[in-house]
């Protein structure tokens, strides 16, 4: 056995460090002693050293199996930098030419190479298996070992063939390493690799410097812009699920003066690499990315990670948030959550094999639990990874800083535990929640659980409540989830004791996030409260101008626009154009008096205006409005325009109305004259000019009677608003 001083000498000589981090030294000693080893170490903990150091100290070559070609190259380059000898590390994968492969094999055979990085696909090739049989292998290191498990967040079928191939080549000690593994995934890895009696080394998953928060998914883009502007100059990553959303958000951030770049797998690799480098070199502050980003990115000073969309699993979430604050400094992790997104993710799973759907569903449930729960976020995350967080309050998550009121819940917990016993511990959380709330589902019927004495025993509460009780009982260790058949609820000895002798147990209700998904209402007109006093002042001003111009008030600005002004307080013409229903034309024509009166009001009342008004929107990329305006200029029939854009006539008229209401003048006479008799046009026009109090279509139909078609009224109303207002 090598002495401690020898190990430290190698550490200093090869890697330039004086001391080990965490439990690195114990892991390395275990590997050097030729024992199988399982390492669970969060990102940034120094996993690579756990196999690199024993490899340079031992005889023969260590085979490192890694799934990412880019990461292999980085690691080989890093090893060569540590050593005076370039042959110390090599990789074998599909990116090499035949000549390069010959050179790699020569160095390995001459025992120059201490580490050989191999992609799992390359390991399965017959010629490589035959080659590896001829060399002395010190040990096998399996990096990103969670890829073995279907329950891991990055399952790769080729990883399940590693053990049979090792047996074919010749058995040597195995070290499996991963940054994210639940107890279930850890068990899968050890079982599949045949190392159930390996030495297990777990590092804490707790990152004390990270702050966790989950917010309701409303007006997300505005919120993100406000957050970044309040943290200007700081590095951050925004994760979205779709490539389209990545492009959209990056574009909006740029328009609003934020140095942001997109990154996703659909971009060509040169642009992707360039954007990544600009982020690393601080030429860009923010990267907007799909989960393709960040593999092996070691930027220490990422200050915030924002999830525009909630990820598919808590492993994914933990790994992505883990890119914040690697230097131990500030790291804010903010996720936007709407149950609608979960429904979308479930739809994506349809069409996949049933077993895969079931796994995906269970992982999504864990994400929902995390998002909706009012329990300490840190406690929940660590519990998910099989670690206990002892503190009651972490003081670094939204739930701990703004706790929900608690209530006595021991009766509810006992009811849950007794129901689980009654169904012989063979069912998952949802099923138990359905029994207690008295909900008859196909599963409840088929097991005749609607005949159980516990069926409906808690019907005064819904299944959401009972799921919350189950979740908090899991964290309290009264329950556990079965490892082999994941999700089945089992009662622990502590749970049995609680049934026998219940004691006080405090519960907190879950969050109820509104089911509004993202940008339904781009400028908050419906959600924020209207300043009634300002609204009334603006209506008076509108009336005054309407008399001067001799047009009905609604021609100038409609009520929703005035309401929006009384929420957002625009004081420049640019800001006025962000108000719903106000385009450049309207702002120029009527805006000056409105912004002056608002400015005066804001100053007198010392109003703190919403910062959100700085949000500039990106021109609609579909170009549908531009297309309509150009087509009308060319006097194309509306039927042709509708067909070209796949719109119903009613939808096209709505688009035209929006264009006119925003202040763009359109001349539809060529079409209206061909469709509506001159006299009928006159009657409708006169109604809006002289009688109408609002531009309401319903009122117009009521007043004008059944002899006029709805489309006729709409067309003439467009003509009237365009001529009078624009």
Characterization of this structure:
With 726 residues, the chain is α/β, with parallel strands linked by helices. It has 5 domains: 199 residues, Rossmann fold; 139 residues, P-loop containing nucleotide triphosphate hydrolases (Rossmann fold); 95 residues, Arc Repressor Mutant, subunit A, CATH 1.10.10; 94 residues, Orthogonal Bundle (DNA polymerase, domain 1); 102 residues, Arc Repressor Mutant, subunit A. It is 49% helix and 11% strand. It has 34 helices and 17 strands. The strands form 4 sheets. A 7-stranded parallel beta sheet has the order 3-4-2-5-6-1-7, with helices on both faces. Strand 15 and strand 16 form a beta hairpin. Helix 2 runs parallel beside helix 3 and helix 14 runs antiparallel to helix 15. The longest helix is centred in the C-terminal third of the chain and has 22 residues. It is globular. About 2% of the residues have low confidence.
Would you tell me the overall average pLDDT? 87
Total strands: the figure is 17
CATH topology label of the largest domain? Rossmann fold
CATH H-level superfamily of the largest domain: P-loop containing nucleotide triphosphate hydrolases
Largest sheet: spatial strand order = 3-4-2-5-6-1-7
Highest-level CATH class of the largest domain? Alpha Beta
How helix-rich are the residues, as a percent range? 40-55%
Number of helices: 34
Net shape: globular
What structural class is derived from the secondary structure elements? Answer: alpha/beta
CATH architectural name of the largest domain = 3-Layer(aba) Sandwich
Which blocks of ≥5 consecutive residues have pLDDT under 50? 516-527
Domains, number: 5
Radius of gyration: 32 Å
**Share in β-strands:** 5-15%
Termini distance? 89 Å
Largest sheet features: 7 strands, parallel
